[in-house]
From TrEMBL:
Keywords of the record: ATP-binding, Carbohydrate metabolism, Kinase, Magnesium, Metal-binding, Nucleotide-binding, Transferase
Name under which the protein is recorded: GHMP kinase C-terminal domain-containing protein
Species for this entry: Micrurus corallinus (Brazilian coral snake)
GO molecular function: ATP binding; galactokinase activity; metal ion binding
UniProt record, GO biological process: galactose metabolic process
GO CC terms in record: cytosol
SUPFAM superfamilies found in the cross-reference section: GHMP Kinase, C-terminal domain
Source taxonomy: Eukaryota, Metazoa, Chordata, Craniata, Vertebrata
GHMP kinase C-terminal domain residues: 15-97
Alphabetized InterPro entries for the sequence: GHMP_kinase_C_dom (IPR013750), GHMP_kinase_C_sf (IPR036554)
Length: 100
């Protein structure tokens, strides 16, 4: 779990730099790295959240996605181009099995 905390501090710094540079692609990559670390290092994700993040990342125009909140059934937040929102919602609804 310490690996997540230390890595998250570094990711947060890089995320701030990406936002200042308006590099949303890089910011999104850091969101996914953060989710993966929460899942693998901090062990607070669950299959349903992992499935939602993976589905979101398959949609063109999505920059990044990660779990947020308390984990273990929390929710996800996704950064995407404004024009991709409706397509992302539909795709995720269609793809999400609710049985992961």
């Amino acid at each position: 779990r310490a690996r997540h905390v230390i890595g998250e501090i570094e990711r947060t710094s890089r995320a701030a730099e990406a936002l200042e540079a308006k590099d949303y692609k890089r910011f999104g990559e850091l969101m996914v790295e953060s989710h993966n670390s929460l899942r693998d290092d901090y062990e607070v994700s669950c299959p349903e959240l992992d499935e939602l993040v993976a589905a979101a990342m398959e949609v063109p125009g999505v920059y990044g996605s990660r779990m947020t909140g308390g984990g273990f059934g929390g929710c996800t937040v996704t950064l995407l181009e404004s024009g991709a929102a409706e397509k992302a919602v539909k795709y995720i609804k269609d793809k999400y099995s609710r049985t992961a």
